[in-house]
Amino acid sequence: MTNSKLIAYLGPPGTYSQQVSCYCAYFGKTPSGHYEYVPLNTIEDCFAAVQDGTAAYVVVPFSNSSNGPVKFTYDLLRTTEPRPSIIGETQVKVEHYVLAAPATLLRIKQGGEDAVRTVYSHPQVWGQCTRYLTSHFSNATRISVDSTAYAATLAEKEGNAVAIASIAAADIFHVEVYAAEVQDNQDNYTRFLVMEQYVNGAERTELDQSVDMELVRWDRVTAA
Ligand SMILES: O=C(O)C(=O)Cc1ccccc1
């Protein structure tokens, strides 16, 4: 019987992290074999899962070409002891969609965008869709949640909310596309890292060292 190994990612299914985790065997140094994918609620849970050995590997978003660091990941990379080993990375083009429940779309059609009271998304998204959000839903409250796909689950349940999330989330949840590719920059890339548990005494990888340099560089930028 084959033993499957767990790859954890920021869930629920439909996040950008899930899409990346599905092919992380190709860019991470994960041995060939059979993998199962586990969605976790927060980036913090992903660090904990690899730390305590619940998951063999985790995939976390690290930084974005439009708005820089994913704060949760940067903070956890600085504070988790010992820090997991970074064994792979990839850059993925990220396209954001405005998703809404069918009833909300009807309300927008009848009453305009002011019918929308709440826009849900992952905090990383706001700075990637500034232009769109300046001219749309300006009276709505922006609520940051743990992931874009979780945002889609909230929009699915509410009659006056939209989510900014991936097209994959639209396929999974009962939400429809109100607007496509709303990111400011068409070349909007996010860098993701694959990590595994750090083994005591192991030499740090080259990738570990380049991430260290990135953290130091960012500390300098914010201190200036
Ligand atoms: O929330 C998600 O879907 C994630 O995977 C985190 C994220 C959010 C925004 C851009 C890239 C990754």
UniProtKB/TrEMBL annotation:
Entry GO MF terms: prephenate dehydratase activity
Record keywords: Amino-acid biosynthesis, Aromatic amino acid biosynthesis, Lyase, Phenylalanine biosynthesis
Domain of life: Eukaryota
One Gene Ontology cellular component annotation held by this UniProt entry: cytoplasm
Domain Prephenate dehydratase: 6-197
Pathway assigned to this chain's UniProt record: Amino-acid biosynthesis
Keyword Lyase listed: yes
UniProt-listed InterPro entries: Preph_deHydtase (IPR001086)
Gene3D superfamilies, per the entry: Periplasmic binding protein-like II (3.40.190.10)
Pfam hit, one: PDT
Single Gene Ontology BP annotation: L-phenylalanine biosynthetic process
Presence of keyword Transport: no
UniProt protein name: Prephenate dehydratase
